[in-house]
Specification:
By secondary structure, this protein is an alpha+beta fold. It folds into three domains: 113 residues, DNA Polymerase III, Chain A, domain 2 (Roll); 124 residues, DNA Polymerase III, Chain A, domain 2, CATH 3.10.150; 112 residues, DNA Polymerase III, Chain A, domain 2, CATH 3.10.150.10. The chain has six helices and 26 strands. The strands form four sheets. It has a nine-stranded antiparallel sheet. Helix 1 packs antiparallel against helix 2. The longest helix has 15 residues.
Length: 371
């Protein structure tokens, strides 16, 4: 195998596919990047056995062939090359000779015949969402995906699709995040909705490589696998098995208290209060709502913080406490100018959603405190 191509193009491709490499691969060959040169296309593939990322790059192919090179080492070597074009030549021993301007390197390779074949999704439901919009949806729910493996289904994010809406839902037992996009979707005849639980790690990597543009990402989903196609890249993953929690049952149908305030002012006040909360034993901040005021306080042995903001209260006054991290994560993912918080009591969930519409919804469990 021999090919010549632009160094930066090769590096960008390697940066994309090596996101699928595992820290502790099941097989030594899965530490590598599979390189397949044919026609005028170099195909790069990395996999950890359940997540696979493949991308296609233009290259001047002088000799077709395949090899597997150590993924992280090859990427770092290419990153250090002087620039311009690089020529890679691979012999029968699978070793790669890398030549770029005055730089010459040799890198031991592995037999591509040992690289496992990754199955494609032949039949499934197509779900297409603009890359920019999908990227934003993921980034605003991924923080609520559980990391505790004891409830594996919660380490994924629920994707629900109906004829006119797609929503992503994540929850970890302490908070819930939901984002929606409204557009028409084509479902198979007789199917009212599609449900798939996508592993959290996969969504995190997908959001990092999606482009900030309106070109669509097409997801092909069957009962056990999902493939996402965007640009010159394909991502494949195994879906999580099992039934996701019926999150609708934990959403309150009505509220006794609604508080509206400037989102930036609330975030800045909470950020300041969180500095002191982190010094305490339980990382708590307290919020007290009256007719036209929101008071935010935190206490620790080293001192305390007290903030007062203008707010509008509809309903009963309320004092409530939250884990500082949980409330901060939610507010940072809201872009509306106004923050609308809904309550029933100081021990029931707080719901944050838009003043108008329902493009997003967040649920935060309060912390019971004893004065």
């Amino acid at each position: 195998m021999q090919f010549t191509m632009n160094v930066q193009t090769l590096l960008e491709g390697l940066n994309t596919v090596t996101r699928a490499l595992a820290a502790r691969p099941a097989k030594p060959v899965l530490e590598g990047v599979l390189m397949d040169a044919e026609g005028d296309t170099l195909t790069l593939t990395c996999s950890d056995g359940s997540l696979t990322i493949e991308t296609h790059l233009y290259a001047e192919i002088r000799e077709a062939g395949r090899t597997v090179l150590p993924g992280k080492l090859f990427t770092e070597l290419v990153r250090k090359l002087p620039g311009g074009n690089v020529t890679v030549k691979v012999g029968d021993d699978h070793a790669a000779h890398i030549h770029c301007m005055s730089s010459k390197s040799k890198l031991a390779g592995m037999n591509p015949a040992d690289y496992p074949e990754m199955g494609d999704v032949d039949k499934g439901v197509n779900v297409s969402i603009p890359q920019k919009q999908l990227r934003e949806m993921i980034s605003r729910v991924v923080f609520a995906i559980a990391t505790d493996e004891s409830r594996q289904i919660l380490t994924g994010c629920l994707l629900e699709v109906t004829a006119d809406e797609a929503r992503m839902v994540a929850l970890d037992g302490f908070r819930l995040a939901m984002q929606k996009v409204y557009q028409p979707f084509e479902l198979p005849e007789g199917t009212e909705n599609l449900k798939a639980v996508i592993p959290g790690r996969v969504l995190g990597e997908l959001s990092r490589i999606l482009a900030d543009e309106d070109e669509f990402c097409r997801m092909l989903i069957d009962k056990t696998r999902m493939q996402a196609f965007f640009g010159n890249t394909k991502l494949s993953t195994v879906l999580l098995a099992g039934e996701y929690i019926d999150y609708r049952r934990i959403l309150p149908p009505s509220f006794k208290t609604t508080v509206t305030a400037n989102r930036d002012e609330v975030q800045n006040a909470i950020d300041r209060a969180s500095l002191m909360a982190r010094e305490g034993k339980n990382n708590l901040i307290r919020m007290a709502f009256s007719a036209d005021t929101m008071a935010i306080t935190s206490n620790a042995e080293l001192g305390d913080v007290h903030e007062e903001l203008d707010a509008r209260l509809d309903g009963d006054p309320l004092d409530i406490a939250f884990n500082a991290k949980y409330i901060t994560d939610v507010i940072r993912n809201i872009t509306d100018d106004e923050l609308c918080m809904h309550f029933n009591s100081n021990v029931s969930p707080c719901i944050v959603k838009p003043r108008e519409g329902d493009q997003f919804l967040y649920l935060i469990l309060p912390v019971r405190v004893f004065n």
